[in-house]
Amino acid sequence: MSDHLFYQTRQTRPFIERAEGIYLWDAAGQRYLDGASGAMVSNVGHSHPHVLARMSAQMQSATFAYRLHFQSDIVEQFAARLAKKAPKGLDKVFFVSGGSEAVETAIKLARQATLARGEPERFKIMSRLPSYHGSTLGAVAVTGTPPFAEPFAPMMQAMPKVRAPLHYLDGLDPEDPGTAAHYLKEIEEAILAESPESLLAFLVEPVGGASTGALVPPKGYMEGLRALCDKYGLLLIYDEVMTGGGRTGTYFAADQYDAVPDMIISAKGLGGGYMPLGAVISRNDLVDDVLDHGGFLHGFTNAAMPLAAAAGMGVLDVVEEEQLCDRATRIGGVLFDRLRDLQSAYPFIGDVRGKGLLLAFELMADGQSKQVLPKELNAHVKLVNIAYENGLIIYSRRTRNGTEGDHFMICPPLITTAAQTDELVALLDKSLG
Ligand code: PMP
């Protein structure tokens, strides 16, 4: 580790030399296949010439102009394109620099909208256990991963959590309508236990991210959640930081449910790793109410930076021109089947799940009992390190129930070809072996 930098641990990695497509090279010339798109970020791959060209063109005009001093054509155009991607009625965009900032923005917008409506008693955000919504204190308060929150508990207002629909552990069929009903009943009970008029919003990843290991909700769950939010007056906020940008097969995962949220939070694949970028896309009337009621008390210096918008526009061009949403479905389907083949070969792969190219597998003592591996094994770190030595990057977490369970995200860039999928699977096979 350098003398001056610090991250989460003292673990060191080689220095990055260059990155192109789905590969990165370290200073010693070792090549790595990016099986996690960084942290589910590099949706269009690294160093895409089109994105670099758009950024370069923007750099010749203006990289930064403070949004309260100047409007910017490219920022306006980008907002309009995102609004078009979002469900009807969600046309108002606030740009920030990443996922946590976007979560904070959504929470503060929701709160100010309810104040504008004259319902000051609504302030609690209900979310799920497990879940991940970011690392700033407000986002930690709504994140359902207890170890991430415990040290800060005295400094935060505790926010209510309900259990995510872990149907694969509960032995329930995700296609059976009774399964969603089972988990929705738990949510309704939690809402009633909290006194519903104190609840402001329900925050949910429409396909789970790293905390659940790509948990796909059972059939009818999102629609039922929408109905519960309507019944008790909660806003429904989709955290699409990881699912957005085409990763699950549509630009936003919201398109795959008959349940329209009141806000969508986007980041990661939005800037694609070219610039720090996040956004909240909100229902128009919520924003209008807030602006008519004294303004939006919020702001980040770098929000709506023209250079970041140029990067985002370039990434969006590539997603559209190379039809990467369809490709996520197609290549994701192939990869899912190949992961299932590995599951047949290795009984300690207890589950394979996900949607599009948001895929994961979970290591267990065995697939029958669904018991987690002993903590001392440190499997979630070990397998990542073995894969790394083999030139494959994967992303892991030990948070099945918010605290335990070893799962691994397999989320290569959406530009991954069939041949590169074979290569990824071969490297993973070798590492598992
Ligand atoms: N929400 C979700 C669903 C995420 O996956 C993440 C990042 N892993 C965040 C929010 C926070 O985003 P960031 O790290 O860009 O602040």
From TrEMBL:
Xref: Gene3D superfamilies: Aspartate Aminotransferase, domain 1 (3.90.1150.10), Type I PLP-dependent aspartate aminotransferase-like (Major domain) (3.40.640.10)
Matching CDD domains: OAT_like
Single GO MF annotation: transaminase activity
Entry keyword annotation includes Plastid: no
Cofactor(s) this protein cannot do without: pyridoxal 5'-phosphate
InterPro entries in alphabetical order: Aminotrans_3 (IPR005814), Aminotrans_3_PPA_site (IPR049704), PyrdxlP-dep_Trfase (IPR015424), PyrdxlP-dep_Trfase_major (IPR015421), PyrdxlP-dep_Trfase_small (IPR015422)
Key words, A-Z: Aminotransferase, Pyridoxal phosphate, Transferase
Family assignment from sequence similarity: Belongs to the class-III pyridoxal-phosphate-dependent aminotransferase family.
PANTHER family per record: AMINOTRANSFERASE, AMINOTRANSFERASE CLASS-III
Protein name stated in the entry: Aminotransferase class III-fold pyridoxal phosphate-dependent enzyme
Organism: Maritalea mediterranea
